[in-house]
Design brief:
By secondary structure, the protein is of the alpha+beta class. The chain has one domain: Jelly Rolls. The protein is built from 3 helices and 9 strands; from the N terminus they run H-E-E-H-E-E-E-E-E-E-H-E. The chain has helices spanning 2-18, 40-45, 125-128; strands at 21-27, 30-37, 57-67, 71-72, 80-85, 91-98, 108-109, 115-122, 137-138. A 7-stranded mixed beta sheet has the order 6-5-8-3-2-1-9. The protein has a two-stranded antiparallel ribbon with strand order 4-7. The relative contact order is 0.22.
């Protein structure tokens, strides 16, 4: 009960501090609380200027259609693992340990396949849970 209360408090705190909608995302046996971003201005901002993220924190980018979605790490202060998923929530591309941009022009990571969802998690998560291409995630959008 104490753990559940803390989780509810943490989600409420995040919601008030950063605004938005959150979803529980299951990546194999690892569960993260992901901020759901579907508006272009939220997607552009991503984790810019945030000092750090917790092990169970993530950002889930939701797009209206399958397409090639490129990412960069401009003004991001920590490395991320980024996973692209198709409409069936199956991993189609993984970029591990994507480091913050330290000089212009910033590196842009472009997946070779179309995706519908992109999940950003703390760097090292993919290796820690042995996540690989073809693996699926589970979530329900609010």
């Amino acid at each position: 009960m104490k753990r559940l209360s803390f989780a509810i408090f943490f989600i409420a705190l995040c919601y008030n501090a950063f605004g938005g909608t959150f979803a529980e995302v299951k990546i194999k046996s690892h569960i993260v609380t992901a901020k759901v971003v579907s508006k272009p201005e939220e997607q552009t901002r991503g984790y810019m200027f945030k000092p750090a993220i917790a092990d169970n924190e993530a950002m889930l980018f939701v797009y209206p259609r399958d397409d090639i979605y490129s990412f960069w790490m401009k003004n991001t202060k920590f490395a991320l693992d980024i996973i692209w998923f198709d409409a069936g929530k199956k991993a189609v591309y993984i970029k591990e340990n994507f480091s913050p941009c330290t000089e212009e022009p910033c590196w842009i990571e472009t997946p070779p396949r179309k995706a519908r969802y992109v999940l950003e998690v703390k760097s090292g998560t993919v290796k820690k849970i042995a996540f690989k291409l073809g693996d699926q995630i589970e979530f329900n959008l609010p």
